[in-house]
Amino acid sequence: MRADLRRSTAPLATALAAVLLGAGGAVAAPVQAAADTPSPLGIGPAVTDSYQRGAFGVAVWTDTPGATVTKVSATLRKGDTVVEIPSVPAYDWDKGRFGLHQAPLKLTEDGGTMPTLGRYAIAITATDSRGNTRTRTDAGVLDFTLKPQLEFAFSAPGWDDRTTVPSGTLTGVQPGSGDVVPITGRTVDVQRTTPPASPVQSPVTDRTGAFTGEAYTGVRPGDEFRVAYAEESDEVHGSAGWTRALYTWRPHTVTVKATTDRVRVLPGQQATVTGRMTDPKNGGAPLAGQQLQIGPSTGNSLHPAFAKVVTTDANGRFTTRIPSLPGLRIDGWTAVPVDPYQSFGTATVGGRLAMPQEARILLRSRALSNDAKVTASGKLRATYDPEASVSAQPVLLEVSADGRTSWRQIGSAHADDYYDTVVRATSRGGWYRLRHPATDVLAEAVSNTFRLVRTETRITGANAGPEPVRKGAYVTMTGSLQHYTNRAWRTFGSGSVALQFQAKGSTTWRQVATGRPAANGKISLKAKATVDGTWRLRYYGDATHFTSPFSWADYLDVR
Questions:
Q1: Which residues of the chain have pLDDT under 70?
Q2: In whole angstroms, what separates CA 63 from the centre of its chain?
Q3: What's the pLDDT score for residue 326?
Q4: How far apart are CA 328 and CA 63, in angstroms?
């Protein structure tokens, strides 16, 4: 047996009973015997079921080896009223615990044995299989009272009458039967708690338990109200309360038509919104002095921090401006009423409005190959929101003769969120830049300009011979390699030159010999002739020179 449950003295037991039963003075304090006869039986405190007040539970045990508790009974007392419970059954799922959970006590009017509501002192008697018996007279108190509950509602205020009347019903749940009965003649506390809080009202319940408070004027949707009730008596024990917001009202539907002068606001620009508010319930008459909140939005959800409040004039008209807001992700603009009693109905007042974020292009690399291919790479990013997605945004490669004017596009690609954007094009040198044209996502962005140049080359005087040529004999092709420098074509004796051949009826050129030009740029390469075909020379450039254009081709018969 647990020592804390077995160790109980007479003075402490008497004091406990006095505390538990003294609230109403209706229950007589149990008589304490001069000295308890030592018993191996233990009886714990009897506790009222918090959900079902017609029942209580108690722990009973025996310390006699091999013995079991065979019977538990209870006696309930309130003043001169005594109710005997011959048998308190054991719990099926909790060995050593007994209670009335399956057959709670009820009032006589409900077919039970309890004559009245109230708090009853509980005495528990237990017997074990060896004949040992013990009675605990201070086992506990049965809280056989009504459990209060509240219902609370408001009348619906409207645009023309912003008044609400609180009302509700106070009822109690009977122990045992669970019947709900009105609690009459009681005072209920009602208060509007929305700052500044109003004084507490105290309406009284009628014979049905209903109550109605005084009207609150000037209320707004969302205002909070608190209703509360508490009682400690032989009839009712406990408290109930609610805090609820005013969530029903009668809105007044108005008509608002508005437009913007642009659908894209670039950095430094602003969009002008103009519109008019009318009253469809008054023949479309203009509504003057009404306020709207207008600003940028995402998914029709207004950004209140960047919205402006405007007031309609005598003709119901209004106007406002929405500036570019760096870093704000929006996809439109919208207007909402300031007055919570106004509604725009099912229509959404607003529209598309792109606000491209300021952007930048960080140039990563640039190159001009010997075959006139320009390659430039860069990173496109939003200036104020580096995490913003730039995926699929266009990036253009542009060229200019002087790096200042007459820029023209020669290539394009789409940006990626993670990798550099690479743009390629064919060009023979000049001033270049990467540019992102303005879209709904990002404003225009331009990289630093850069210049790429190579020296032009050409092969002149190309000639193949002899003509005709015998099969198996050598064909010699000559020419002169030049490059354009100091504003003139001059001989160039550097690099590698290739002799190429295309057989008659074929579309493929194949390289048959290579060599270097002489210091004066002269070229002389030879290869065996086996079939009829065309011969040509090609210079493939170097780190600073372009590959030469195709030189004149010479056709030879083979005999």
A1: 1-37
A2: 61
A3: 80
A4: 76
Q: How far apart are CA 82 and CA 75, in angstroms?
A: 7
Q: Is the peptide bond before 468 cis (omega within 30 degrees of 0)?
A: yes
How many angstroms separate the CA atoms of 296 and 400, rounded? 39
Q: How far apart are CA 282 and CA 395, in angstroms?
A: 55
Nearest to 182 by CA among 210, 204, 202, 154: 210
**Rounded Cα–Cα distance for residues 389 and 534 (Å):** 55
The amino acid occupying position 393 is Q
- Whether residue 196 is preceded by a cis peptide bond, meaning omega within 30 degrees of 0, is yes
Burial class (CB in 10 A: 0-12, 13-18, 19+), 82: exposed
pLDDT for the residue 551:
82
Tokens encoding 68 = 């079991």
Here the tokens at position 254 are: 């108005």
Biggest distance spanned by C-alpha atoms of the chain: 148
CA distance 142 to 57: 10
DSSP string, 89-150: PBPSSSTTEEE-SSS---BGGGTSSB-S-EEEEEEEEEEETTS-EEEEEEEEEEEESBEEEE
Burial of 382 (0-12, 13-18, 19+ CB in 10 A): buried
Nearest to 444 by CA among 401, 488, 398: 398
**Residues comprising the chain, all counted:** 559
If we measure between CA atoms, which residue out of 23, 17, 18 comes closest to residue 236?
23
| Cα torsion angle, 10, 11, 14, 15, sign | negative
